[in-house]
Amino acid sequence: MTKGKTKWKVFLEVVSTLQAVSTFLFLGVTCSLLMFYLMFTSLWPIPTLYFVWQVVDWHTPERGGRKTTFLRNWRAWDHLRDFFPIKLVKTAELNPNKNYIVGIHPHGIMSLGAFTCFSTESCGFKELFPGLRSTLLVLAGLFRLPVFREYTMFLGILPVSKKSLVHLLTKRGKGNAVLILIGGAAESLFSAPGINTLVMRQRKGFVRVALEFGADLVPAYAFGENEIFKQVIFSEGSLGRRLQDLFKKIMGFAPCLFAGEHMGILPYRIPITTVVGSPISVPKHIKATEEEVDHFHNLYMEALSKLFHEHKVSCGLSENHELRII
């Protein structure tokens, strides 16, 4: 993947990727510990004022956040894109006069494909889907972390909560593409090269919201997302898996034992191709029945499976790769 690139370009790609990975792994914890430490120093007014501000500003993430074009257009994201590289593929037109809930699969370890395609401008989302605004929704607990919450909101990332979805689908007019990592933390535990396992058979909340607000459903698959890190996968019922599940239940995310190349946290240079499928038309039913929810949930899974099998070979997988939905 470095063929034809200058040493300076390769260096910038590595630094930009390490920045993104380090931010994901350490920025939230580091900011929290720093604020706690400063409370016991002569600089205690700084964290005190910030915590007061955070309380006053507590609901902003669920009310649209504070997106800045500067951070989304940061040149470092172009180098992050080129490191793998990451590509966004369009298979159908999305009408800017409608709202969409886009399911992203698989979650992977860090969801770098989803982040780069939909929370930065480096993959050309605006050019591919003119008139649409992309908003990636992630774990709500991240917005309780001091300073890190501001950084996340500046990128246009918001919490995956009912209040946040209601705001995006009712207060911002049309042309909203709300992106959700359906499998969440549970799915990250299945992320490893050669494995295509999705956790979604019992995940129907996004379908209920789509019916409540008449937002069309769109499946999207990030081929290569599971290939960029190796992970120790514990079998169901093992002590390791029980500890991971317990941690996930308490903290909201799963601790993955993963490794990349060189320094361990640098991902492998495997292409990530995020393919956005065709929209599934969803009527507006404020009080949808379970039968309606199941119907559109099944339609979504069928469309996702079809998308996977139609594009798996062109995106680097072999013909015999199968998609497992649990």
From TrEMBL:
InterPro entries on file: DAGAT (IPR007130)
E.C. numbers: 2.3.1.-
Cellular component aspect of the GO annotation: endoplasmic reticulum membrane
A GO BP entry: triglyceride biosynthetic process
Tree of life domain: Eukaryota
Membrane-traversing stretches: 20-40
GO molecular function (one): diacylglycerol O-acyltransferase activity
Root EC class: transferase
Membrane topology: Multi-pass membrane protein
Leader sequence residues: none
Keyword field: Acyltransferase, Endoplasmic reticulum, Lipid biosynthesis, Lipid metabolism, Membrane, Transferase, Transmembrane, Transmembrane helix
Location in the cell: Endoplasmic reticulum membrane
Major localisation: endoplasmic reticulum
Recorded family membership: Belongs to the diacylglycerol acyltransferase family.
UniProt protein name: Acyltransferase
Organism encoding this protein: Champsocephalus esox
